[in-house]
Amino acid sequence: MLEKNKDKYGTRRNLISLVWLLLVSLAFVGCSRDAEKAAETTGEKLDKDFRVVAVSYPLQYLTSRIAGGLVAVDCPVPPDVVDPSQWKPSRKSILAMQSADLVIANGVGANYAKWLPKVSLPESRLCRAATKGLSLSDYIAVEDVSMVHSHGPEGEHSHPTMVSRTWLDPAIAKKQAVYIAAQLEKKYPQFAAEFAVNLAALTKDLDRLTDLLQPSSGQALVPLVTATPLQKFFARAAGVGDLHLTWFAIPDAEQAGLDLKAVLKGAEATEGVVLFDRELPSAEVLAVLKAQGFRPLSLDLLDQPPAKGDFLSSLEANVVALKKALSR
């Protein structure tokens, strides 16, 4: 009799346990659904895969700052490529771009990625952050840096070079960021509020660098010569008119001296700064520049992620170095 009662009470306890587990499970399901709804209202990404591709590191940085982790922002260019503008995408990279929600590019007016026109991408997904985000006066065209070639009935002719590294001017980078934010909002309207907050923080950072670049009142600046036109956005942002060489390949010391004299002809400059893109030339070339009163300065083109810091900290380092070099 006692054993039967034990079995009866044991069975009852088991039933109660099963009911309890069922209630707990239902509660967890309810909490999970509530959390999912809350996440959707706050913009937290759950099971959806939002993805944007930027064709350069600076554009990736600007887009990532605005996206704030709500959208994955990739750059297909490997970090060890010396000149990403000349990089050629693999089939895998092209497929990844074609499947992205948006592709952020500079645009035709300052076409940075030489490979982009050869890749078939849906126009509806292509965000041209320079073509649409900038006005005509924002561009820099260099008329006397051109490649003579022949095609069509025109025969041999040349085209002016459009300087593509718009992000070296923080004021231009800000305009691009505003346009990128607008395109992200169109694609992901559920995150509009978060994008607006992130854009405000980014533009504040860029405005600070724009102000930092401006010459102090009454400050005398030495002439600036850019070894190539690639840094002309940065030179213009610093409020100093530059004379540019066309050293896409740095010549020997003798030719470097002749080129510098030619570009300075009529400028009456006895001292100044020559701005190089990635690294300084040989000691012989530097000696020739020094003999003519010109100091060398190498600034980061910000094509790739820096070893330390990020785009903004590297741009600020450029600003500080250039201001110091230009001061008499």
What would you say about this model in short?
The chain is built from 9 helices and 12 strands. With 328 residues, the chain is of the alpha/beta class. 35% of the residues are buried.
Describe, in plain words, how this protein is organized in 3D.
This protein is of the alpha/beta class. It has two domains: 51-213, Rossmann fold (3-Layer(aba) Sandwich); 224-326, Nitrogenase molybdenum iron protein domain (Rossmann fold, 3-Layer(aba) Sandwich). The protein is built from nine helices and twelve strands. The strands form four sheets. The chain has a four-stranded parallel sheet with strand order 2-1-3-4, with helices on both faces. The protein has a four-stranded parallel sheet with strand order 10-9-11-12. Strands 5-8 form a two-stranded antiparallel ribbon. Helix 2 links the parallel strand 1 (51-54) and strand 2 (72-74).
H and E string = HEHEHEEEEEEHHEHEHEHEH
Query: Based on CA inertia axes, which overall geometry fits?
Result: globular
* Total beta strands: 12
Strand content: 5-15%
Top-tier CATH class of the largest domain: Alpha Beta
**N→C terminal distance:** 107 Å
CATH architecture of the largest domain: 3-Layer(aba) Sandwich
**Overall pLDDT level:** 79
Number of separate domains: 2
Structural class: alpha/beta
How many DSSP helices?
Answer: 9
Strand order of the largest sheet: 2-1-3-4
Low-confidence segments, ≥5 residues, pLDDT <50? 1-47, 146-152, 154-158
| Radius of gyration, taken over Cα atoms and rounded to an integer in Å | 28 Å
Helix content: 40-55%
| CATH fold topology of the largest domain | Rossmann fold
Oligomer: single chain
Identify the CATH homologous superfamily of the largest domain: Nitrogenase molybdenum iron protein domain
